[in-house]
Amino acid sequence: MARTILYQRDDCHLCDQAIDLLARARMPEPESVFIDGDPALEARYGARVPVLRWVDTGRELDWPFDPVALQAQSR
Predict the structure, then answer these.
(1) pLDDT at position 57
(2) Does residue 51 contact residue 60 with C-beta atoms inside 8 Å?
(3) What is the C-alpha separation between 5 and 68, in angstroms, rounded?
(4) What is the pTM of this model?
(5) Which spans in the chain are helix H?
């Protein structure tokens, strides 16, 4: 399965829910990137976190996502 990055914020309950969903969906653990304090990442992802990004394709999936959406994006 492709490598993913989860863009998130500190103390983000939606980010915690996304991590839990990824684990339940048996997705490989994503690399965590915290956008706090990075002006470029905050500008791009600030209102959208958590965002799951596939490194190989650049595809992004905004929260809320579910196992069906994860499966579709992983193809």
Answers:
(1) 93
(2) yes
(3) 18
(4) 0.91
(5) 13-24, 39-45, 67-74
Q: Quick check: helix, strand or coil at residue 35?
A: coil
Beta bridge partners of 4: 54
**pLDDT top residue among 45 and 1:** 45
- How many Cβ atoms are within 10 Å of 52's Cβ, its own excluded? 23
Q: What is the mean pLDDT of residues 57-70?
A: 92
| Residue 6: both structure tokens together | 């989860």
Q: Which domains does the chain have, with CATH numbers?
A: 4-74 (3.40.30.10)
Q: Which residues of 10-28 are buried (b: 16+ CB within 10 A; e: fewer)?
A: eebeebeebbebbeeeebe
